[in-house]
From TrEMBL, chains A, B:
Residues 22-152 form the Activator of Hsp90 ATPase homologue 1/2-like C-terminal domain. Belongs to the AHA1 family. It holds the Pfam family AHSA1. It comes from the Bacteria. It comes from Streptosporangium vulgare. This is SRPBCC family protein.
Amino acid sequence: MNETTITAQPGTPFIDIVREFDAPPALVFRAWTDPELVPQWLGASGTTTTLIEYEVVPGGRYSYVHRDRAGEHGFRGVFHTVVAGERIVQTFQYDGRPHDVSLETLIFEDLGGRTRVRTHAVFGSVDSRDAMIESGMEHGVRDSMARLDRLLTR
Amino acid sequence: MNETTITAQPGTPFIDIVREFDAPPALVFRAWTDPELVPQWLGASGTTTTLIEYEVVPGGRYSYVHRDRAGEHGFRGVFHTVVAGERIVQTFQYDGRPHDVSLETLIFEDLGGRTRVRTHAVFGSVDSRDAMIESGMEHGVRDSMARLDRLLTR
């Protein structure tokens, strides 16, 4: 069973997420970037995800809405770097906190048929990073990674 | 005489730049975003700046080249947030170090006919921030701010 590691060192503005998948980088990258596939895994269990925009090219924008029984939450960002199967650099914003934009670097590491995805997120301040942790993002990330794992091995 | 303050606290991934201008936010914002005006102030003295792209809208891209006697250097990024006269959130990359992307938040504060521009930049690591400081960016920033000051009071 693959596990998701989430690290947020106290006093830093960083969050690091590491997850391995039993599928090659080309497949993991496709699941991460194909607008047909993303709603099938992104979000906590019990959440419906609707993509509004999702154009994975430098300068492309994305936005999506998570809906659950409690309500809905919007997210958005732009893509700075896109190297197919290897690397994405993107901004990230939760519309409920539009002044807390973060920058995420995703690296798809080839483990020989398997893939390690490393996400490094950096926030504008330690407080902004702490607010994201306190929002309960950890639960959503772990659920999303487990759902993606199941999609890839289907 | 307005002065440029550049702060880079040791051990953090942040750079903060503060500068006041003797012009209202609408004018400062225009000089910052109009592709005709940007090459007139962006870059150290003795540098020629050529914009390749410069589309200041969310998802818009920018790229430009600084040329001096020593050679040329390319820079690029994408705009995440654009609120005219108030706020810009953008990514920033020096093409010589494409893995050191930073995220910049610019705030145009209205001082009543004058403007304070605050730039907060955050890097993926302290080392990446330190490398940017060591590249001599401070000289380029101070010259650019002084050139913009002269353009605005012309």
